[in-house]
Amino acid sequence: EAGVTQFPSHSVIEKGQTVTLRCDPISGHDNLYWYRRVMGKEIKFLLHFVKESKQDESGMPNNRFLAERTGGTYSTLKVQPAELEDSGVYFCASSQDLDMYGYTFGSGTRLTVV
Amino acid sequence: DAKTTQPTSMDCAEGRAANLPCNHSTISGNEYVYWYRQIHSQGPQYIIHGLKNNETNEMASLIITEDRKSSTLILPHATLRDTAVYYCIVRVRGGSQGNLIFGKGTKLSVKP
What we know:
The structure holds two protein chains of two kinds.
Chain A (H helix, E strand, L loop, with lengths): L4 E3 L2 E4 L5 E6 L6 E7 L6 E7 L2 E4 L8 E4 L6 E5 L8 E8 L8 E2 L3 E5 L1
Parallel strand pairs in A: 2-11
Antiparallel strand pairs in A: 1-3, 3-8, 4-5, 4-9, 5-6, 7-8, 9-10, 9-11
Chain B lengths: L8 E5 L4 E6 L7 E8 L6 E6 L4 E2 L4 E4 L5 E6 L8 E9 L13 E6 L1
Parallel strand pairs in B: 1-9
Antiparallel strand pairs in B: 2-7, 3-4, 3-8, 5-6, 6-7, 8-9
């Protein structure tokens, strides 16, 4: 089966611009997560979708971040306007059964805000 | 904050078993122990998880102590490609709470 796919793999934008990251989970996985790692820090949870509903968005840093998962398939994470501290690697993961299986992570999107 | 404690780094000779310890002394009865690894800048990769029994799969074995306060991940025959940061994570079983709390992990270096 195809894994979790993230687009783009790299993005360089200027401060104040908008960037949209996309994640295509494994087909049939109801659970979709966004995580990020900023430079020198640990990987941090951002939010969790179950199908199209936001189950937990406690990790979203502020209202410049907007995540959507229309139709319960792919998800987008938009940063508007981007700030320098948003630079980092954004990972998406999906899972079908949280107790039976681990998550499958994508390769990440490396975002650089200059 | 992460509920686990791991050594910062470990070395292992190629072909030998790598034994990575993890302390989770405050683990609850309904929490799983998960192991993930991150090779260079790739996305984290699931390895194995368990509740209280020892587990084995094609990648590794997980040994959980009887009191569940610590565990050991065993890579039976480490290769150079196993060089990575290994994360031990506890997560509540069941329900909708699914997020993982990553700590600093153990940087495993497999040497020829």
